[in-house]
Amino acid sequence: xxxxTHQDPGFLDVxxxxxxxxxxxxxxxxxNCLLSVMDHCFRSKHYVNVVVAGKHPAPQWLPMEEAVxxxxxxxxxxxxASNDKNxxxxxxxxxxxxxxxxxxxxxxxxxxxxxxxxxxxxxxVVDLMKLxxxxxxxxxxxxxxFDALFTKNKPVIFAFHGYPWLIHRLTYxxxxxxxxxxxxxxxxxxxxxAFDMTVLNDMDRFHLVQDVLDRLPNLGDEVAYLKQEMQxxxxxxxxxxxKNGLDMPEIRNWKWIN
Length: 258
Description:
Layout: H1 11-16, E1 23-26, H2 31-43, E2 48-51, H3 64-73, E3 75-77, E4 91-96, H4 98-114, E5 120-125, H5 143-150, E6 156-160, H6 164-171, E7 180-183, H7 194-200, H8 205-214, H9 222-244, H10 249-252
Parallel strand pairs: 1-2, 4-5, 4-6, 6-7
Antiparallel strand pairs: 3-5
Protein name: Xylulose 5-phosphate/Fructose 6-phosphate phosphoketolase C-terminal domain-containing protein
Domain Xylulose 5-phosphate/Fructose 6-phosphate phosphoketolase C-terminal: 55-256
GO molecular function, one term: aldehyde-lyase activity
């Protein structure tokens, strides 16, 4: 996992400057979504389709049938990862990209275990253009639909594959933009482990949990202990990779179990 020779998500920023009638940007979160997105792109004509995907084996968060539906919509709530159904969420955990999705789900699993009363909504974005208004891009959401996903006043922690300000650029005129906090690439990288790359850019599960805690001041006294636990995990991670040259087993072998 090298630095400047292998990392430049700014390509997305360049593409987004092109005509809305031509450009499409997709960030499939798993293997099945990648298959669905590529099937769509291979059938399309007269578009510039940008697909961001990894080169390593990917998880399968969604069965193929659900992946097709999710990719057709381009954005949606993952009910199986959320626990806010029939109520108002305390926080929205949003993600776009395979690694950001993995770290978001891992953060959600920690929060649901440690703070079971916390209401969390997970929103996954496949089609980046959905974040824009429908007046700016044909794939864009109107304000009512956007607010239905991201709420009008709740904190949104957004893990993103690229530079954070691209998300802010796409959502600057949304009702709840002031509560959107984006974690993404910030020019940190070296020859290190896969998980450490996310740690260097503050987009790992432990930082995401702390981001939630920092934006929910009414959680109570248990927050201090959970925040310290997350900080301890980051220290433990640093020592482990220096000694062993690979990520901790709990990172390498993590699976969604909620």
